[in-house]
Amino acid sequence: MSQMPQLAACPSCEWPLESGDRFCGACGYDLSVVPAPPEDTPTITMNGAAAPPPAEGAPVSWPVAPGTDGSDTPAPVHLPSDIRGTDSGGSELHVQGEPMGEPPGEAGPQQPHVPGPHVPGPQPHVPGARPPGPGAQPPGPGAQPPGPGAQPPLPGPQPHVPGPQPDGSPPHGSEPHGSEPHGSEPHAQAAPSGQEQPAARGVRFDRRAGLSADAGDYHLAAPQPVDPRTADLATPPAGTKTCVACRSGHVDRDGYCENCGHAQPRERDHMEQELGSVAAVSDRGLRHHRNEDAFAVSSTALPDGTPAVVAVVCDGVSSATRPDDASMAAAHAANESLLEALPRGTHPQPAMHDAIVAASNAVNSLAEEPETAQEHAPHQNAPACTLVAAIVTSSLLVVGWVGDSRAYWVPADRSSPPARLTEDDSWAAQMVAAGLMNEAEAYADRRAHAITGWLGADAYELEPHTASFKPDRPGVVVVCTDGLWNYAEAAEEMAEVVPPDAAQRPLHAARVLVGHALDGGGHDNVTVAVLPFPAPPQGAGSA
């Protein structure tokens, strides 16, 4: 009777068992039917069959060390390829080139590659030795062993030397003497007879047919960047823009390239306009992600035929909803109102008051649009902006404003004093007007730029400010947002920045002023318009 395996618990219900139990005390499971555990065989088999246990005392066929003769010639050593290998089951490895099923050694005796004693029988295939190629025939019975001076085969891949054809023509796939296949390395010179061929350097990989064996390592070609000067770039579809960075991707509606993801510069990031004797420049600055300023410049004629030049500059309130839309709507509404009132003979100062009211109504209407309701957040106010505008005629200068955007007078004769033409609707201005602080103390306070007047649906009360002047000498009017005057606050500082030829080159002067703000840090959007006084004769027009 076979011995039952010792179990610690029942295989059916896992009830603890004691030594000698034949049945489970809980479920009655017959423990005699439990199969015995297999014997532990640490050898890992590759053919699915367990290796037979080695017989005790079985002799091991070790290769016999060759002896020495009396000629003081050292005995040759055995190469790794001279020893027949075995698999995990103890069977000899099959050598490629020998027919399967034929016992080793029947294909003809094979001799070792070196003279001297050797292990009888065919030699095994050892990893690292070059196996015979496909279709290679085993040596026949009459094959001669290599002579004493023959060199042993080198490990690693061996080149295939095609033999001549029966008709005497060169071998197939060979090149005539003096020519090399395209893209291959020149053939190395053969070593003299009796000298060992140098082994190939590096690791060689199997390659596809037709590739040179000496072509070197594999290389991954890096993608070449597109050169916009020579590349044949496709024309973008109508209504789309091409990326300014990669020059190949299309820009989506959100302003990003579909190819490289680069954010495209917005149209309002930098704007310039020159119309006769008036010019304006607006820039996003160096810190803000978008330009929330806007401007409008135009020229028209009064009923008596004299010219009138108009400039409107607006600054969106960043803490409000849609500040960029608010400034643009206010600038266009005020400009259109002035272009309609001045040719009819309305006095410029009442026309300026009505233009500010029209701008306020345009900004208020934005609060009722569905787009504003979608973007509106509890901590944000309705769309809002500030405004400053100027009208220049042949003898009159009129300014109007709401908020902290400013207008400066800079005479052509710099020996005459410049002046600031507006008063801010801000906390600092109120402190100075009430006599509670001087100007230096007020503008040094962190609440200095908190505005107390603006255009918007949530404004406390609309109070348009207008002022009329009759300068007795030529000069220029600078209309700007706080993005500029923060870097040239006093009238004297502004006059130092304005170029002397500003009346003749207003666009150049506006660019210089914007550059001054950017050089100072560009912490805010910067917008400035330059109007010469008196207005030179010119034809009516608007933009």
Could you explain the architecture of this structure?
This protein has 543 residues and is an alpha+beta fold. Among the domains are: 7-29 and 240-264, no CATH class; 270-366 and 382-533, PPM-type phosphatase domain (Phosphatase 2c, domain 1). Helices cover 15% and strands 14% of the residues. The chain is built from 8 helices and 13 strands. The strands form 2 sheets. Strands 3, 4, 5, 6, 9, 10 and 13 form a 7-stranded antiparallel beta sheet that branches. A 6-stranded antiparallel beta sheet has the order 1-2-12-11-7-8. Helix 1 packs antiparallel against helix 2 (348-366).
Q: What does the secondary structure layout of this molecule look like, with pairings?
A:
Layout: E1 270-275, E2 278-283, E3 293-301, E4 307-316, H1 323-341, H2 348-366, H3 370-375, E5 384-392, E6 397-402, E7 406-411, E8 419-420, H4 427-433, H5 439-444, E9 455-456, E10 465-469, E11 475-480, H6 482-485, H7 491-497, H8 506-519, E12 526-533, E13 541-542
Helix pairs in contact: 1-2
